[in-house]
């Protein structure tokens, strides 16, 4: 199969993720959408690695996974703290700081 | 199959390794040391590793090498200058962070809970902010010296993740502080996803993850230009977010306001140096020959950023938000240096970053001093007549504001003058005109604050100025001396920067 199709898929996933971040209100769902975007980038890296015949892209994918895992640790810590303080994980409820 | 061990040049990497080592010691101290000894030990470890790292940076100042870590890290003149700036700014910020009054006793406790009160009463203050600071500084040192996309991405996350947490550690107004951490985190992670996606397309364009490889592909041409454009655009989104340029600035006023003020100082100053350092390196080396593709975009962003930051700052009633919008405007001025794309532009940017960073830390140091019984007072209306009550503090703040405004005899003037003349030289006239005009608008609201402090009668509402601790005084005095000295007699520093400021490829 043409490798370019994977690129289209990656762009599609990235777009779904980006739209999700903008329209969804629950912090956890927003965060999942961000993870989807990171994985879309990973897919692009691996596809380009295949197209270019170069292994570095796959190495990047591994690094991204590790970094994404760290991000989950920090992100969930923050979201859980917020949830415990105000019993809601909605991004809209967090509006103490003036616009 | 043969494996060859990687060759690392530990001398060149030592500033970062020292900081990471110090951070790990800090984690152990946090876990095992008694609560009485913890704050002073943490402070000593943190300051010790920062000073040692600065000393190491000074020792390697004449080194030029791309082989420090198998081509992943490049050490050259600008790298050394940026690392030294980040370290100096971090040291004076740590003096502010040492004020544990600002930080929650127990970040894991619910705001207003029994647990929190108990921790506060027994003096069981957690000091995890120190190791977090060191991890962030290590990431900041790595960011402008990265020489491939993996290192750049890892460094970006390494500097961001601790900062997200630090933003949520405030003792007072904890809900607002946690909220700012959430906002910073979600938007920061969003922008790093863009960054990574851009990196993927740059890799697709050039078949290489190193900056040199990307540069060769750009110079050679023949690749798919669409990939290059997507790559540059998305990578820039990530970088522009970190520096807080419009339209990627939405986080900065909220985070500046919500985060504990010492963290705001650190984040505002040091992150900017690191992010602009990385930006300068990647635009000046890898993307230099694709100037046609990014100059128009960056020019528009720079102009909007300057004008928007200056205009919106006028309407602010909160001193931290005002400084946030002022930092947005400064991001626009600094983008001028990236657009200039010539050696004077690079030198001016480095000078500007250092001067602006030191003045910013000084400015926020003053903000930590103005308090009433409930904590810091950030409402500008209550700063009225501050100059009559505590002339020294108000004078120092006026000095920093004048430097932000770019009034002669302060470092801000030299910075702005050199960065605009570099951009003019390279033919980016529209940016220079917009820059000068928005400087005038910006000067208006800085001077308005000075008028408010000195020529308005004080209101009796319990707002007072804390007697600064010796560490805070050092920060303020150091910052004001640097701000004035760089404005009155900048030649030695400019010459020093000029001899070192050349990127190697």
Automatic annotation (TrEMBL), chain A:
<dbReference type="Pfam" id="PF00420">
    <property type="entry name" value="Oxidored_q2"/>
</dbReference>
<keyword id="KW-1278">Translocase</keyword>
<dbReference type="InterPro" id="IPR039428">
    <property type="entry name" value="NUOK/Mnh_C1-like"/>
</dbReference>
<keyword id="KW-1133">Transmembrane helix</keyword>
<keyword id="KW-0812">Transmembrane</keyword>
<feature type="transmembrane region" description="Helical">
    <location>
        <begin position="60"/>
        <end position="83"/>
    </location>
</feature>
<keyword id="KW-0472">Membrane</keyword>
<dbReference type="GO" id="GO:0030964">
    <property type="term" value="C:NADH dehydrogenase complex"/>
</dbReference>
<feature type="transmembrane region" description="Helical">
    <location>
        <begin position="6"/>
        <end position="23"/>
    </location>
</feature>
<protein>
    <submittedName>
        <fullName>Unannotated protein</fullName>
    </submittedName>
</protein>
<dbReference type="GO" id="GO:0016651">
    <property type="term" value="F:oxidoreductase activity, acting on NAD(P)H"/>
</dbReference>
<comment type="similarity">
    <text>Belongs to the complex I subunit 4L family.</text>
</comment>
<feature type="transmembrane region" description="Helical">
    <location>
        <begin position="28"/>
        <end position="48"/>
    </location>
</feature>
<dbReference type="InterPro" id="IPR001133">
    <property type="entry name" value="NADH_UbQ_OxRdtase_chain4L/K"/>
</dbReference>
<keyword id="KW-0520">NAD</keyword>
<keyword id="KW-0813">Transport</keyword>
<dbReference type="GO" id="GO:0042773">
    <property type="term" value="P:ATP synthesis coupled electron transport"/>
</dbReference>
TrEMBL record, chain B:
<keyword id="KW-1133">Transmembrane helix</keyword>
<feature type="transmembrane region" description="Helical">
    <location>
        <begin position="126"/>
        <end position="143"/>
    </location>
</feature>
<feature type="transmembrane region" description="Helical">
    <location>
        <begin position="263"/>
        <end position="284"/>
    </location>
</feature>
<dbReference type="GO" id="GO:0008137">
    <property type="term" value="F:NADH dehydrogenase (ubiquinone) activity"/>
</dbReference>
<feature type="transmembrane region" description="Helical">
    <location>
        <begin position="181"/>
        <end position="206"/>
    </location>
</feature>
<keyword id="KW-0472">Membrane</keyword>
<protein>
    <submittedName>
        <fullName>Unannotated protein</fullName>
    </submittedName>
</protein>
<feature type="transmembrane region" description="Helical">
    <location>
        <begin position="226"/>
        <end position="251"/>
    </location>
</feature>
<dbReference type="GO" id="GO:0016020">
    <property type="term" value="C:membrane"/>
</dbReference>
<keyword id="KW-0812">Transmembrane</keyword>
<feature type="transmembrane region" description="Helical">
    <location>
        <begin position="431"/>
        <end position="455"/>
    </location>
</feature>
<feature type="transmembrane region" description="Helical">
    <location>
        <begin position="467"/>
        <end position="489"/>
    </location>
</feature>
<feature type="transmembrane region" description="Helical">
    <location>
        <begin position="12"/>
        <end position="33"/>
    </location>
</feature>
<feature type="transmembrane region" description="Helical">
    <location>
        <begin position="348"/>
        <end position="370"/>
    </location>
</feature>
<feature type="domain" description="NADH:quinone oxidoreductase/Mrp antiporter transmembrane">
    <location>
        <begin position="146"/>
        <end position="441"/>
    </location>
</feature>
<feature type="transmembrane region" description="Helical">
    <location>
        <begin position="391"/>
        <end position="411"/>
    </location>
</feature>
<dbReference type="InterPro" id="IPR010096">
    <property type="entry name" value="NADH-Q_OxRdtase_suN/2"/>
</dbReference>
<feature type="transmembrane region" description="Helical">
    <location>
        <begin position="296"/>
        <end position="315"/>
    </location>
</feature>
<feature type="transmembrane region" description="Helical">
    <location>
        <begin position="149"/>
        <end position="169"/>
    </location>
</feature>
<dbReference type="Pfam" id="PF00361">
    <property type="entry name" value="Proton_antipo_M"/>
</dbReference>
<feature type="transmembrane region" description="Helical">
    <location>
        <begin position="322"/>
        <end position="342"/>
    </location>
</feature>
<dbReference type="GO" id="GO:0042773">
    <property type="term" value="P:ATP synthesis coupled electron transport"/>
</dbReference>
């Amino acid at each position: 199969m043409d490798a370019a199709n994977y690129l289209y898929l990656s762009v599609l996933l990235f777009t779904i993720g980006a739209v999700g971040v903008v329209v969804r209100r629950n912090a956890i769902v927003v965060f999942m959408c961000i993870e989807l975007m990171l994985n879309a980038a990973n897919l692009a890296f691996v596809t380009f690695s295949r197209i270019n015949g170069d292994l570095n892209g796959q190495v990047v994918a591994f690094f991204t996974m590790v970094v994404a895992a760290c991000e989950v640790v920090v992100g969930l810590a923050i979201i859980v703290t917020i949830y415990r303080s105000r019993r809601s994980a909605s991004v809209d409820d967090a509006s103490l700081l003036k616009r | 199959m043969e494996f060859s061990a990687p060759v690392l040049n530990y001398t060149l990497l030592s500033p970062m390794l020292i900081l990471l080592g110090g951070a790990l010691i800090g984690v152990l101290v946090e876990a095992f040391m008694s609560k009485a000894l913890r704050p002073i030990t943490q402070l000593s470890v943190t300051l010790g590793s920062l000073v040692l790292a600065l000393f190491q940076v000074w020792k390697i100042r004449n080194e030029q090498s791309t082989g420090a870590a198998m081509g992943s890290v490049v050490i050259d003149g600008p790298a050394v200058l940026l690392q030294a700036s980040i370290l100096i700014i971090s040291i004076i910020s740590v003096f502010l962070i040492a004020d544990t009054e600002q930080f929650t006793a127990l970040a894991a406790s619910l705001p207003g809970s029994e647990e929190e009160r108990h921790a506060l009463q027994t003096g069981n203050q957690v000091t995890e902010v120190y190791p977090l600071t060191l991890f962030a500084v290590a990431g900041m040192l790595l960011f402008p010296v990265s020489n491939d996309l993996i290192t750049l991405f890892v460094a970006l996350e390494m500097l961001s993740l601790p900062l997200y947490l630090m933003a949520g550690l405030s003792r007072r107004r904890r809900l607002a502080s946690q909220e700012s951490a959430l906002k910073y985190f979600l938007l920061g992670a969003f922008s790093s996803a863009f960054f990574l996606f851009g990196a993927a397309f740059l890799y697709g364009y050039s078949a290489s993850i190193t900056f040199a490889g990307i540069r060769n592909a750009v110079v050679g041409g023949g690749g798919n230009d669409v990939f290059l454009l997507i790559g540059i655009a998305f990578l820039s989104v990530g970088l522009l977010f970190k520096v807080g340029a419009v339209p990627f600035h939405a986080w900065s006023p909220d985070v500046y306001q919500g985060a504990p003020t010492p963290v705001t100082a650190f984040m505002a100053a040091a992150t900017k140096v690191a992010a602009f350092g990385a930006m300068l390196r990647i635009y000046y080396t890898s993307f230099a020959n694709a100037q046609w593709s990014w100059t128009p975009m960056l020019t528009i962003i720079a102009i909007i950023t300057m004008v928007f930051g200056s205009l919106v700052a006028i309407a602010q009633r909160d001193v931290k938000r005002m400084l946030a919008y002022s930092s947005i405007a400064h991001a626009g001025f600094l983008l001028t240096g990236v657009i200039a794309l010539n050696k004077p532009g690079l030198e001016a940017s480095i000078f500007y970053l250092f001067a602006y960073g030191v003045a910013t830390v000084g400015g926020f140091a003053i903000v930590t001093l103005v308090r009433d019984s409930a904590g810091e007072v950030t409402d500008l209306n209550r700063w009225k007549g501050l100059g009559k009550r505590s002339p020294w503090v108000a004078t120092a703040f006026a000095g920093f504001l004048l430097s932000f405004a770019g009034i002669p005899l302060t470092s801000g003037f030299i910075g702005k003058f050199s960065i605009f003349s570099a951009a003019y030289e390279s033919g980016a006239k529209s940016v220079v005109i917009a820059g000068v005009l928005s400087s005038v608008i910006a000067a208006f609201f800085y001077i308005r604050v000075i008028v408010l402090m000195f020529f308005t009668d004080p209101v009796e509402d319990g707002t007072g100025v804390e007697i600064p601790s010796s560490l805070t005084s050092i920060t303020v005095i150091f910052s004001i001396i640097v701000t004035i000295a760089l404005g009155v007699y900048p030649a030695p520093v400019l010459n020093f920067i000029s001899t070192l400021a050349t990127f190697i490829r």
